[in-house]
DNA sequence: AGTCGGACTTAGCATTTATTCG
DNA sequence: CGAATAAATGCTAAGTCCGACT
């Protein structure tokens, strides 16, 4: 449906349909697009407020013009500012404006400009005509069918390139933010009457509140941790808080509680869900999609952006990682009264669910979150924030890699410095220098101190204790070996035997003198002291930058080393994965071997065997066909030889692919690649590698990852150097 | 210098969805 | 086509780091 007719200053007319307008303008502006509005080819902050102005992304504008112009005429393509040297200024590095300035323009001033294009700028003005007056006219000019069909695709391709725009000044995260608030967990549905809970062998009907908490436990019955003392103790304590006085006086011993019937019921439910018909499944899917469409997006500064976690965490039993002292505690249901909403003053403020109120509505554009609440287990704040594909996350990510690249420039100096500091007279300086050496060489985390008894006992570099390392003056033919054995983040074990320099070794001996196993190894050091020192060495330098730097530089160097130009694509990808793996090992990104690992490995092996047989068969056939051709010497048999040859080649290739896959999987058994890929490896390294060797980017990044790294995919060329 | 709340990144496992296989 | 398997996505815990305050 054509709803608007637009006339350019030079008389060219554009028709826009509904979807088109929605897509490019954002919701608010569309609603108010009245009889006369101004349009710009770049975002105008004031535009959002004044309701009479809106903007097109520039490229979209021209493409739209191409598709929609009734009397087609190639619009003047206004070039961006000169392309300096193809190098995109980094967010932090450079304070000079990026490609598209975003400064607030006075709308009137634009209006009074010299024409529809201002030389040297990319402004382009449109006048939206009174759509009623033009309706009759627009009817007889029909838009070609082909263009109509092409259009949705165009929209898909037209992604906002925020990385070509200027950033906001430090501290300001947005100018306009509108969203629909969070989606709450579905309310509790009491169990059907026939599902029983037994206490001490007797049926007992629970109050709704007590029953709800009981179902949380029942759902976990198969898990090992429901047998753990701490889990049971914590659960029982919190459960009793939800009980009525009568229940409380009856139910005094968790061991006398029988949840098995409830558990069976839930298992049956899960099974039933699996068995649902296609239509029912589709219905659920549609409903989820509707929810996503309504609540999964927000408008931030003229752009519709995807929200990461718009659903509030449902209530349940807390299960920390590792040996967590709070496991089994009740994670309570979050109500609107717990929720703080953050949005623009002039936005449509999301209404709380009927009969409820928000805890608070604030308008803080110094933060990126849309919704927050305080969680009851640790008392920490949880947030609803944007998806990694959003501008606000992407900019930060890009900046992180730029900081790491700055470290690259001065890392030698820093290394020399800490080696000097090993000899310092000051204990504090020595400890700092040894800790930094570990962080640099082993990619250890900083290691903040944690409150004892509140979380699992895990450590990082600065919080290492004497009991976590063993010193071996000599081990397996190597001198000065340090053996690390401790639980790190998520209670993942770090175990490593590392030869270190003599001076480090001697220092460690010194630090351990007269200490108990549970004493801090670096007793004069913490992360704040360390980071303060790092800040002096380089602006923006913190302990974690070393992890980013070492991960990315390792990938780049491993790719150089491992890629064989003569390899085919699968073999090159194996090389990529191996380079990725080297990083994952460095960062100690482990995973539990998948439960079905052995089985799936065997399946793959049998596939390989089958393929081998198939290859042998194909070769035999080729041989006989060749013999046949020699005798008959006719066209037909020659052709047969050719096709058999091709078959052999194809099977060989398939076999090789399978074998590569098997190697890859075996090597990956206990190593998780995704964490480093997503958080530590500068995506531009991967993009450049793909471009250099002609590997399709889809082989390296899946759809979500491509969205997250759109900036890198767009800007990195083959010659990118980290 | 140390403590603490707050904001944001990083992490692995669980669940869902897509693909392959029989 | 449905089951099995693999890949992708979702979930939320657990880190890092900063700045206000004492």
UniProtKB/TrEMBL annotation:
Reaction catalysed by this chain?
A: ATP-independent breakage of single-stranded DNA, followed by passage and rejoining
Q: Where is the composition biased (Basic and acidic residues)?
A: 91-104, 141-155
Origin organism is Amazona collaria (yellow-billed parrot)
Q: What is this protein called?
A: DNA topoisomerase I
Name one cellular component (GO) term: nucleolus
Q: What does this protein do?
A: Releases the supercoiling and torsional tension of DNA introduced during the DNA replication and transcription by transiently cleaving and rejoining one strand of the DNA duplex. Introduces a single-strand break via transesterification at the specific target site 5'-[CT]CCTTp site in duplex DNA. The scissile phosphodiester is attacked by the catalytic tyrosine of the enzyme, resulting in the formation of a DNA-(3'-phosphotyrosyl)-enzyme intermediate and the expulsion of a 5'-OH DNA strand. The free DNA strand then undergoes passage around the unbroken strand thus removing DNA supercoils.
**Alphabetical list of Gene3D superfamilies matching this protein:** 1.10.132.10, DNA Topoisomerase I, domain 2 (2.170.11.10), Topoisomerase I, Chain A, domain 3 (3.90.15.10), Yeast DNA topoisomerase - domain 1 (1.10.10.41)
What GO molecular functions are on record for this protein? Answer: DNA binding; DNA topoisomerase type I (single strand cut, ATP-independent) activity
SUPFAM superfamilies attached here?
DNA breaking-rejoining enzymes, Eukaryotic DNA topoisomerase I, dispensable insert domain, Eukaryotic DNA topoisomerase I, N-terminal DNA-binding fragment
GO biological process terms, semicolon-separated:
chromosome segregation; DNA replication; DNA topological change; rhythmic process
Protein's UniProt keywords contain Isomerase: yes
Keywords associated with the record: Biological rhythms, Coiled coil, DNA-binding, Isomerase, Nucleus, Topoisomerase
Q: What is its EC number?
A: 5.6.2.1
The record places the active site at 680 (o-(3'-phospho-dna)-tyrosine intermediate)
């Amino acid at each position: 449906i054509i709803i608007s007719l637009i006339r350019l200053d030079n008389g060219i007319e554009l028709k826009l349909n509904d979807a088109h307008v929605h897509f490019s303008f954002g919701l608010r502006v569309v609603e108010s697009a009245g009889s006369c509005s101004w349009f710009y080819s770049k975002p105008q902050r004031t535009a959002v407020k004044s309701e009479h102005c809106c903007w097109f992304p520039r490229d979209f504008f021209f493409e739209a013009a191409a598709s929609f112009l009734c009397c087609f005429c190639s619009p003047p393509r206004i070039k961006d500012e000169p392309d300096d040297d193809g190098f995109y200024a980094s967010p932090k590095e450079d304070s000079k404006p990026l490609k598209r300035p975003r400064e607030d323009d006075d709308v009137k001033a634009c209006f009074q400009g010299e024409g529809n294009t201002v030389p040297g700028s990319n402004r382009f003005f449109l006048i939206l005509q009174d759509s009623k007056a033009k309706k009759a006219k627009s009817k007889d000019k029909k838009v070609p069918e082909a263009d109509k069909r092409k259009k949705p695709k165009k929209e898909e391709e037209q992604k906002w390139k925020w990385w070509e725009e200027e950033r906001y000044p430090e501290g300001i995260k947005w100018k306009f933010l509108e969203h629909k608030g969070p989606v709450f967990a579905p309310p509790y549905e009491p169990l059907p009457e026939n599902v029983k809970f037994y206490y001490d062998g007797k049926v007992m009907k629970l109050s709704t509140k007590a029953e709800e908490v009981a179902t949380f436990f029942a759902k976990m019955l198969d898990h090992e941790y429901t047998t753990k003392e701490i889990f049971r103790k914590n659960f029982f304590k919190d459960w009793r808080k939800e009980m009525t006085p009568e229940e409380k006086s009856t139910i005094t011993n968790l061991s006398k509680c029988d949840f098995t019937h409830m558990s069976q019921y839930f298992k049956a439910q899960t099974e039933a869900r699996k068995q649902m018909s296609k239509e029912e499944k589709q219905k659920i899917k549609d409903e989820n999609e509707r929810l996503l469409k309504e609540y999964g997006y927000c408008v931030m500064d003229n752009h519709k952006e995807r929200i990461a976690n718009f659903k509030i965490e449902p209530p349940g039993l807390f299960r920390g990682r590792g040996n967590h002292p709070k496991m089994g505690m009740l994670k309570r249901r979050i109500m609107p009264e717990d929720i703080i909403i953050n949005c623009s003053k002039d936005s449509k403020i999301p209404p709380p669910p009927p009969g409820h109120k928000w805890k608070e509505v604030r308008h803080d554009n110094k933060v990126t979150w849309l919704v927050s609440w305080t969680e009851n287990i640790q008392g920490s704040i949880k947030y609803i924030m944007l998806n990694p594909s959003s501008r606000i996350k992407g900019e930060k990510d890009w900046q992180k890699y730029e900081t790491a690249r700055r470290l690259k420039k001065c890392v030698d100096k820093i290394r020399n410095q800490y080696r000097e500091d090993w000899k310092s007279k000051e204990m504090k300086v020595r400890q700092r220098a040894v800790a930094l050496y570990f962080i640099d060489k082993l990619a250890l985390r900083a290691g903040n101190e944690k409150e004892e008894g509140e979380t699992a006992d895990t450590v990082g570099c600065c919080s290492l204790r004497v009991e976590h390392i063993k010193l071996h003056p000599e081990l397996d033919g190597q001198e000065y070996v340090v053996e690390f054995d401790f639980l790190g983040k998520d209670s993942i074990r770090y175990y490593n035997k590392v030869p270190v320099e003599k001076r480090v070794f001697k220092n460690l001996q010194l630090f351990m003198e007269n200490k108990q196993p549970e004493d801090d190894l670096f007793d004069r050091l913490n992360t704040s002291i360390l980071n303060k020192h790092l800040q002096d060495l380089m602006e923006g330098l913190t302990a974690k930058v070393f992890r980013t730097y070492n991960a990315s530089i390792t990938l780049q160097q491993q790719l150089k080393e491992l890629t064989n130009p003569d390899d085919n694509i699968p073999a090159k990808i194996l090389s990529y994965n191996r380079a990725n793996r080297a990083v994952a090992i460095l960062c100690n990104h482990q995973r539990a071997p998948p439960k079905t690992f052995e089985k799936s490995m065997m399946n793959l092996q049998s596939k390989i065997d089958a393929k081998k047989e198939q290859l042998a068969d194909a070769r035999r056939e080729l041989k006989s066909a060749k013999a046949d051709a020699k005798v008959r010497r006719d066209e037909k048999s020659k052709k047969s030889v050719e096709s058999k040859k091709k078959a052999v080649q194809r099977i060989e290739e398939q076999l090789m692919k399978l074998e590569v896959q098997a190697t890859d999987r075996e090597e990956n058994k206990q190593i998780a690649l995704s964490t480093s890929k997503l958080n530590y490896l500068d995506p531009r390294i991967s993009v450049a590698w793909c471009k250099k060797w002609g590997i399709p980017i889809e082989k390296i990044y899946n759809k979500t990852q491509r969205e997250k790294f759109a900036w890198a995919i767009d800007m990195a060329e083959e010659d990118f150097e980290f």
